[in-house]
Amino acid sequence: MKMKIFMCLKLFPLLFVLFSSSFSGALIKVPENATIPAVMFFGDSVVDTGNNNYITTLVRANFLPYGKDFIAGQPTGRFSNGKVPPDLFVEELGIKPCLPPYLDPSLVDEDLLTGVNFASGGSGYDPLTSNTMSVFSLSDQLEMFEEYIIKLKKIAGDEKSSYILRESLFVVVSGSNDIWNSFFNNLRQFQYDVPSYTDLLELYRLGARRIGVFSMPAIGCMPSQITIRRIGLERKCVTEYNEIAQLFNKKLLSALTSLNAQFPQAKMVYLDFYDLPLDMISNPQKFGFKIVDKGCCGTGTFETSLLCTYACSNEDDYIFWDSFHPTEKAYRILIHQMLQENINYFICGKSLCS
């Protein structure tokens, strides 16, 4: 095995070899005769694995206690204590242990062949959201993806590149930042609605066929929003915010259904990021959690990014790592169920997989 520092781990070569040898492969069974050669992610801080480390922005997580439970306790720019959804996607599918950020200057050919991550913490569907936070918008991320395709073709040639793009999973996670930064704070609620999905059509134009889109989470149950809108002595979910998320999700599902009808070769999959997290918050003991209304970081009520300076010692009791992002334990439960429920649809669409 060629000795190198694994891009998403940033560890010494020996540790990479040891970790790779213990990587047990796929946990999710892919339908017979189907392959998923790579995974690509686009979106915000929920799925950023370190791109923001390479740009000038305050939206960063490349310092402890972020990453305290990642490989060798390394803070890598992931907004959690450990792995985040892109890492768990490739791990569960048996592709590789983690999904590296595209902007990592030490990427090698194998990283590009098996998938990279274009997400940027603080971004949104609305360009104003990304401009406000000085991060990469979805349009910017798609420009990076076009650059990636050029590199891929140089490595693999046109035919294999087309195969990789056609058979890989492409996942978009966005929308929450639009609600906070644009919808409420900048008074765009009378202009902004569910986006036109031109970004999804651009992915299709560039060769992607298996495209998943995360729904909006139960944003009213995030510790930061409970703190901001706290009413009385109890820390309860903000119903108004959850209703906005439900409306968004209803329109998202409708839009994806319409796009699937227009482009029958595509598999555009609605990935529910609302119901299971809400069930976890409503019934924490069923999933092995104790604390649902605060994050592990700081007081757990408002700290995110640079405000996260210290952490609890019992993070596995928490659904939320900081006041916005879940813990690795919570993500593992969510992503495993998400993939189990949707892997056949990514491959076969509405048809039954044989």
From TrEMBL:
GO biological process entries: lipid metabolic process
Protein name listed in UniProt: SGNH hydrolase-type esterase domain-containing protein
Family, per entry: Belongs to the 'GDSL' lipolytic enzyme family.
Keywords: Signal
Keyword Signal: yes
Signal sequence interval, chain numbering: 1-22
SUPFAM superfamilies assigned to the protein according to its UniProt record, in alphabetical order: SGNH hydrolase
Molecular function in Gene Ontology: lipase activity
UniProt-listed Pfam families: Lipase_GDSL
Keyword Methyltransferase: no
Gene3D superfamilies: SGNH hydrolase
Lineage, broadest ranks: Eukaryota, Viridiplantae, Streptophyta, Embryophyta, Tracheophyta
InterPro entries hit by this protein: GDSL (IPR001087), GDSL_lipolytic_enzyme (IPR050592), Lipase_GDSL_AS (IPR008265), SGNH_hydro_sf (IPR036514), SGNH_plant_lipase-like (IPR035669)
